[in-house]
Structures are given as C-alpha cells and as structure tokens.
Specification:
The protein is of the alpha/beta class and 273 residues long. The chain has one domain: Rossmann fold, CATH 3.40.50. Strands 3-2-1-4-5-7-8 form a 7-stranded parallel sheet, sandwiched between helices. A two-stranded parallel sheet has the order 6-9. The longest helix has 22 residues. It is globular. The structure holds 1,4-dihydronicotinamide adenine dinucleotide and D-galactaro-1,5-lactone.
C-alpha cells in the first residue's frame, strides 16, 4: 500500500540509491509521498526511464566525485545501492565499503542531515536461530557482505558523533513479496512494513544513529526492537498467512546452516578462491 500524500510529511528532494534493484523498484513507487522530487540513482539501467517528480542520475558508488555530485541538493538519502549478496571481497569493497564512505562524505560536504541505510541481518548472521538479540548485541557478520554492512553501521555512527548527520540503519531481514522458506518465516519484512519503517526513519526527530531490525509482525522472531521504540514502528503484516505454503516445502536437515544460523545459507557462502 502506498502511503497517502496528505498523511505523510514531505521533504523537497530525496535521493534513492539502488533504484533499479528489487527494493528500489518498490520504493520508487512507495516513498513518492515523502518528497516533492525523488532523485533515482543506480549503476544499472532504470526502467521505466523517468516519471513525473523524478530525476535520474546514473552513478557508480565507487566513484567518489560522481557520488559527490549525486548528493548535491538533496535533503535526505535512502542508501539502498550496492552488492546485496555474498560476493568476492573486491566487489564488495568497491560498491559497499567505498560506496558507503562516499555517500557519507558527500552528505557531510553538502549538509545532508539524514540517511536511511539499508543494513542487513547478515551483520548478525552467525547468531543461532535459538538466540534472541537486540540492537546492542555484538555483531557477528557472516561474510564479506555482512562485514560491509557492519562497516556501514560504524560509518553511520561516526558521522553522527563527529558531524551530527543522523542515520537509521535498518537491519533488513528478508524483504520480498512473500517469505520463500522456513527461515524467512522469522525474517520476512513486507514491502508495506518496509515503507512504514522508512517513513518513521525519515521523519522521527532526534534519531542519532538508531539501529532497527527490519521485520514484519512475524510470530517467531529472533530480534527485539525495544532500543528503537522511539521510531514508533508498528508493523502491519505477518509471515503467518504463508506458513502452510512454506511448510509444504521439504524441511532442511537439522544441522543445515539454513536451519541453524540467523544468516542462513550466507554463513556457508565462499570462499571464492
Ligand atoms: P538488489 O541487488 O536488487 O539492488 C541493489 C542495486 O544496487 C542494484 O540495482 C545494483 O545495480 C545497484 N548497485 C550495485 N553496485 C552498485 C554500484 N557500484 N554503484 C551503484 N549501484 C550499484 O538488492 P535489493 O534486494 O533491492 O536490496 C537493496 C538494498 O537493501 C541492498 O543494499 C541490500 O544489501 C539491502 N538489503 C536487502 C534485503 C532484502 O531482503 N531485499 C535484506 C537486507 C538488506
Ligand atoms: C540480504 O541481505 C540480501 O540482500 C537479500 O537478498 C536476502 O538474501 C536477505 O538478506 C536474507 O537474509 O534473506
């Protein structure tokens, strides 16, 4: 569901990186009420090209001067661009590690005061599924990808402490049209709930650097959002209606990483050489 224009506060210009990606395509529609103009960026081609109240600026996040130009003139950044799965370190380094640094440096130079960072559950992927954690737990990244998101959260924390740039880091669980397997019964985040969370993250005052787990109102969860209660995030969806469909799939072995670790199969990806 798209939030209505009248119900939402509105910024002048929001930058959405990763706009050609799976979530970017959805957010391009859903966050439209949050800004007069949505600046869309990706390294991949965008389809459809450009709509009303949109501007498209292709950019490689690894290119510092291009990112600097990209950020000029925006009021807030939804940073969803980058490599979104486990890959060799060099690929992660360019898009995610250099990329997030470039975004914050540009935010500092151009006076942008709010970033929403698409972090990931893979910063804590090596916790077991029988452990319950909150945002203050020690991170346990499950690969180079998880490490890059962990670095992104540290960059966000540093740029708040040093420059007052506020960030909400959303440790997204699994945001797809529906949960695809047993693990996602716990980690699923509907698009509607993701959109609500982004609205809260954009417009709640004084968030400092807040870390919030991006999950819907699922029955069996591993994550507790009490440290982000000031966001007043109140998920509307649940994975429960999909249970029968998901549990019709063959069950994994009890010692399969997908059944043991919060990060699922990511904990066993690689090495790549
Ligand atoms: P995606 O892979 O579909 O989209 C990522 C986009 O980033 C792609 O369009 C890609 O072209 C772009 N990109 C990659 N390298 C780039 C570069 N060097 N410069 C500019 N753009 C580049 O991923 P998805 O699912 O849409 O996720 C969006 C964000 O949310 C990612 O940062 C991902 O890590 C994060 N996330 C997503 C989750 C999910 O369940 N969909 C779960 C946790 C985190
Ligand atoms: C992620 O971080 C990925 O970007 C997404 O593609 C899913 O794999 C998700 O985590 C997940 O853990 O299900």
């Amino acid at each position: 569901m798209i939030p209505s224009q009248s119900a939402s506060p509105c910024l002048k210009r929001i930058l959405l990186t990763g706009a050609a990606g799976g979530l970017g395509k959805v957010l391009r529609e859903n966050v439209r009420p949050f800004a007069e103009v949505l600046r869309l960026s990706d390294i991949a081609p965008m389809a459809p090209a450009m709509g009303p109240h949109e501007e498209v600026i292709p950019c490689d996040l690894a290119d510092k001067s291009a990112v600097d130009a990209l950020v000029q003139g925006v009021d807030a950044i939804l940073h969803f661009g980058g490599v979104s799965v486990e890959r060799p370190f060099e690929e992660i380094l360019e898009a995610n590690i250099r990329g997030v640094f470039h975004i914050y440096e540009a935010a500092r130079r151009h006076g942008v005061k709010r970033v929403i960072f698409a972090s990931s559950n893979h910063v804590i992927g090596f916790y077991r599924q029988d452990e319950h954690i909150d945002a203050a737990c020690a991170r346990r990244p499950d690969g180079y990808y998880g490490l890059s998101k962990s670095y992104g959260e540290d960059v966000a924390s540093f740029y708040f402490d040093r420059y007052g740039i506020e960030t909400v880091s959303i440790r997204i669980g699994s945001s797809f049209p529906e949960p695809q397997n047993r693990r996602m019964m716990s980690t699923w985040l509907s698009y509607r709930d993701l959109t609500q969370l982004i609205g809260k993250a954009l417009f709640t005052p004084n968030v400092g650097h807040t870390v919030v787990y991006g999950m819907s109102d699922n029955k069996d969860v591993w994550w507790n959002n009490h440290l982000a209660s000031h966001l007043d995030y109140s998920p509307q969806d649940s994975s429960e209606p999909f249970r029968a469909k998901v549990e019709a799939q063959p069950a994994p072995a009890a010692n399969d990483p997908v059944a043991v670790y919060q990060g699922g199969a990511f904990v066993a990806a690689g090495p790549f050489e």
